Amino acid sequence: MISEPAGLRATFSSLPLVVTKLHPPVAREQTVVRERLMELLRPRPGVKLTVVAAPAGSGKTTLLGMWRDAEATVRPVAWVTLDEGDNDPVVLWMHVLEALRQVCPAVGDTASPERVGAARIADVLLPQLVNHLSENGEVALILDDFDRLSSGAARDTLAWLIEHSPSPFQIVVASRNEPGLPLGALRAHGELLELRADELRFTAEEAEALLNERLALGLARADVDRLVERTEGWPAGIYLAALSLVGAHDRKAFVSQFGGTNRYVIDFLVDEVLEAHSPSMQALMLRSSILDRLSGPLCDAVLEQDGARERLSELSQTNLFLVPLDDRDEWFRFHHLFAQLLRVELEHREPGLTPALHRRASEWHRDHGSVDRAIEHALEAGAHAEAIELIAARWLHLAAVGRHATVLAWLDRFPSEVARRSSRLLLIKAWLLSLGTKRKEAEEAITALERLGWVDDGPLPDASSSLEASLATLRAAFPWDDVGNGYRNALRAAELQNPQSPFWAAVCWPLGLACYNRGDLEEADRWFAESAEIGTQNARWLIAASALAYRSLIAGQREDLEEQRRLAEEAADLARENGIDGMKGEVHVAMGVSFAANGESDEALSLLAHGIAVLRAFGSPLDVANALIWQASLLRDSGRVDAAAEAIDEARAVITACPDPGILRERLEAVESPRPRARGRGPELSDRELVVLRMLNGPLSERDIGRELYLSHNTIHSHTRSIYRKLDVSSRAEAVRQALVLDLI
Q: Nearest to residue 407, comparing CAs of 421, 424, 385, 420?
């Protein structure tokens, strides 16, 4: 069994967290406490966001690490070091929630980002988080290396949190450049605190504290002032000078010759700082610079030698540019500026070696269970065949937990000639784009795949029996707005796929959906029953919950209220227990329709509204139209005519745009022009009495009806007596017959 490397662990999530990202930098003895900046960072009323923005080497991380240590004595402070993987909103919020949970356990009740999915983080997860934070008093969240986030969905979710954050909550970001957040609006409302490069420059007093008090160099104050002037207070420049001053025979002469420009400092770093180490230490620093995170065993594998752990520990004690990521001296990272310079020097000294180093890193991560990092290094190495194999084995798991963005980002990194000629990459892309409701892009990938055919070796990445079977299943699962086309593809998929495969549930479900949208309820129920059973057996919770929800709707249309309620509750329980209730809108729709059938219209309308919101994010036009028809029917029955008209108009617009909406057009027409009832010949029955009357036309006793409706037996008996009186009958059988004559049931 492949084990996870140190620095990774699983939490509530089905995916591992990189726990070292949640650790602030370890304080060093040489670090100068910059009290003036610590004071500037203290929380102020009304400030939602604090931005520390300055170039590399300005001391942002060190400053925030010190500030975090001081603040953590009086309030909870969470820390996350961001990286490129956090451009996937699911990955970002996995780590942010875990960081907050470690300091505020109550945040643990917030929805799981993998199960909510990237598309619904802002409207499901974040409102819950804001509510939890508002109950926890003063809390701070530090996001280091914010510049690693490109513009996109992940950054947008952080902007949402900043805008809606409760007043005691403070967000602090450190970035090399402008963080791409709505700073103008925050600044105008006095909700922004900014520290820029000018504030972060070392003063002469701070430089003297570092050079003379911490490092005991014994420099004259005039030499300290000269060094600050030449480096313009750039902390990295001063520190690099300090490293060489330790071994300089004539420190005054060294200061007089030291250049302060960035270009000079870079050359100085290579010529003086790097050369000050032994050849074996230089090799370790240069070759391990390709790694975002370093450990002894990983570096041993990359360098193909032993002893890296001891040398890393030694280096971390003498060089502030190697940052410990834990308190056990197991994981480290180079300062980003230092790593960048080392990579340039590595290519200069050993041109062409970098791909081989990345390949070794990929193999180590693959063998130790950190597959995502193995893929990253394989891509950096240009090991495209290996990267494709890893992605093909990994993508289904990531798709199941909503990490579409991560996989799509990998696919985008392949050279275009590789991506165009790989059937597996095109098939994975088609599935992911369909899951993300990107219809046009998905069709382009499918067209390219059909033109290419299956040319890759090995099994299909979705476990289908053939490419034709896979594409038929894909098109059946995503009929978009064409019921007939979905039905034909579903039938073809059923012919081609293996019924013994765990993938069979993904064939049964679209067949059930196609039959449902064609109005064939009996056949639909049969396929949904099979997909629910197989989906549950194989932990395909999305399929199983959806199938149960549709079976509940079918039971309701057959007026089997007991079965309708049972199936809806089973679907809701399954979705809730497996954390997917934020992704399956049809479950909420089924529960709402079930509540409506039992006369609980307010609860029903709330559930339907929520279900429709989820379906707009995850469903097809057909799904949304179906839910709107249910909503319109209930609104009209509840006397909310204007709201019903709005739902009807929206449903009509969706259906009109569908080339083949199946039975939905007829269902909509029935809601628009409901069949007239002959209720005018008798007294009007209340909504609750109509529900009881429908249930009297069944096998349940009055006491059982009461249990189903969560009402007392006396209440049901009172409703029954009222029904008899209004219909002018004296028995249950007479009441049912009269109701049928009057078209009440």
A: 424
Domain of residue 121, residue span: 8-200
Question: Do residues 670 and 705 both lie within one domain?
Answer: no
Task: Judge whether 143 and 180 are in contact, CB under 8 Å.
Answer: no
The residue from 619, 652, 675 where one domain ends is: 675
In the β-sheet with 192-195, what is the strand arrangement from edge to edge? 77-81, 139-144, 169-175, 49-53, 192-195
CATH number assigned to the domain comprising residue 729: 1.10.10.10
**How far is the C-alpha of 687 from the C-alpha of 197, rounded, in Å?**
68
Do the bridges between strand 192-195 and strand 49-53 make them parallel or antiparallel, or are there none, so unpaired?
parallel
Q: What are phi and psi of 235, to 5 degrees?
A: -55, -40
Per DSSP bridges, beta strands 169-175 and 331-334 are unpaired
Please state the separation of Cα 739 from the chain's center in Å.
52
Q: Are residues 159 and 30 in the same domain?
A: yes
| Cβ atoms 46, 167 nearer than 8 A | yes
Residues 150 and 218 in one domain: no
Q: Which residue type sits at 4?
A: E
Mean pLDDT by 10 residues, the chain (745 residues): 34 63 82 90 89 88 92 93 92 93 84 77 87 88 93 89 90 91 90 92 92 89 89 83 78 76 61 78 94 95 93 78 81 84 90 97 95 96 96 87 88 95 95 89 94 86 89 92 93 91 87 92 94 90 92 90 94 85 85 89 90 83 92 88 92 93 90 58 70 82 78 78 81 79 75
Same domain, 23 and 42: yes
Q: Does a structural domain hold residue 286?
A: no
Determine if the pTM surpasses 0.90.
Answer: no
Radius of gyration of the chain (CA): 32
Dist CA 680 CA 661 (whole Å): 35
User: Is residue 62 a part of any domain in this protein?
Assistant: yes
- As for how many domains the chain has, the answer is 4
